[in-house]
Sequence to fold (117 residues):
Amino acid sequence: MPTVDRTEWNKIYAALARGERREFLRYLKDVQVAQFEEIAQQLLKRESGSAEEKSDAMRIKLHHIHLPKLVEAGLLTWDSQQNQVTLTTLGSQLPAELTDPSLISSPTAGDRRKALD
Fold:
């Protein structure tokens, strides 16, 4: 993994704070390069509400919130002219546990007690 300083890790953790962005990165790890519309459709699968409302809302969130956060963290690049999103080397090398917290085993009661001591 490329060398990442403390400030960059803070940006990465902030970018990974939302489930939509983690899901987006998992999708990109599989395909490497995607069109904006593909990403919107992938994320729409998890939204509730009318199809038109959620479609518009997702595109707005992707364009103004999610994509800029992930670009700022150095996890992907976004060519807005071609509506193409590409995973960066850093993004592709993130440990799977950072994008899919279900892969992390839960601590036992004894481990939790030790951590509190």
